[in-house]
Amino acid sequence: MLEQGSKLMDENPKVVIFSTWTRFLDLIGIALDRHGIKFLRLDGSIDSRSQDRCLSDFSTSLNTNVLIASLQTAGVGLNITCASIAFIMEPHWNPTVEAQAVDRLHRIGQTKKVWVFHFVTPNTIEEKIIHVQNKKKQLAQSTILPTMDWRELLQEILSS
Predict the structure, then answer these.
(1) Which is nearest to 83 in space by CA: 19, 12, 26, 147?
(2) What b-and-e string marks burial along 1-38, b requiring 16 or more CB atoms within 10 Å of the CB?
(3) What residue numbers bound the domain in which 79 lies?
(4) Tens-place pLDDT, residues 49-94
(5) By the 8 A CB rule, do 40 and 57 touch?
(6) Diameter of the chain by CA atoms?
């Protein structure tokens, strides 16, 4: 993540790092501190007033360009259009949770191209989650496009 981020930081963009796990956010925060990178954090332990202040500080600060956030907390009802880069640190079982989080950057008022990076470790449960996500997306599409065999897709998802 730090390697990918440093390549993109030449333009000094705002970055949001999403994770499902607050313990992983702790570790990311430690890594950012070690590299002298200032950041703000948004997760479910923060009350709504503090969340608003955090987002306001993130959007206006010239010195803090990184926001680490839980997918669930930052995934709904927020506007983070000041950011143009998102890192999804691990896949979520529900692909719409990830999509909603990324959509916080893709809102009315976004003037920059948004870059989204997904991290998946080979030969881990993450690969299986990606497979299930893809099958869920196909199943959702099959409700729209009746030519797909939704029963077969559902069976494959359930057997994963």
Answers:
(1) 12
(2) eeeebeeeeeeebbbbbbbbeeeebeebbeebeeeebe
(3) 2-119
(4) 999 999 999 999 999 999 999 998 876 778 899 999 999 999 888 8
(5) yes
(6) 53
How is residue 37 written in tokens?
């990178």
Q: Are residues 112 and 128 in the same domain?
A: no
Q: Which two tokens stand for residue 134?
A: 């893809």
- pTM value is 0.77
d(CA 63, CA 52): 18
Query: Residues 6 or more apart from 26 whose CB is under 8 A from it?
Result: none
Instruction: Decide if 137 contacts 95 (C-beta within 8 A).
Output: yes
Distance CA 154, CA 5 (A): 37
Q: Do 92 and 51 share a structural domain?
A: yes
18 and 38 inside one domain: yes
